[in-house]
Amino acid sequence: MQMDEEGKQPKAGKLIEEDLTYRIRAGIFTVANELGPGFLERVYENALAIELSAAGLAVRTQCPIHVQYKGQIVGEYIADLVVEGRVLLELKAIRCLTSEHEAQIMNYLRATRLKVGLLVNFGKPSLQIKRFVL
Predict the structure, then answer these.
(1) For residue 77, is it within any domain?
(2) Which residues constitute the domain of residue 42?
(3) Please, what are the averages of pLDDT over each run of 10 residues along the chain (134 residues)?
């Protein structure tokens, strides 16, 4: 049974990590409005890390993800950001997101056992944010 941060059962209709993802999304919109489209992915990653840290959130960048099979590491990926150790962010600065990008974030969630991920594309004039739940 899913519990919220206070150990209580969440209210009907409440999303997993709703409050945290709301704060993260606010930071994403701030960065997008300040920088606009056109920069490399790393620029948005660095700016978002600054913005979320300033909002009091614990942010890790370039987080290694180990894929294990029968206790052995069989692969490694790098997640762009992990916020509060609970939400994974995969950033893009491209023309359009594809099913491969969606599969990428789902694989990252499975490998980390995190429940929530946000796939963010800063590469278009209109910001794209997709929420994924494992």
Answers:
(1) yes
(2) 18-133
(3) 42 81 98 96 98 98 95 96 98 96 97 96 95 95
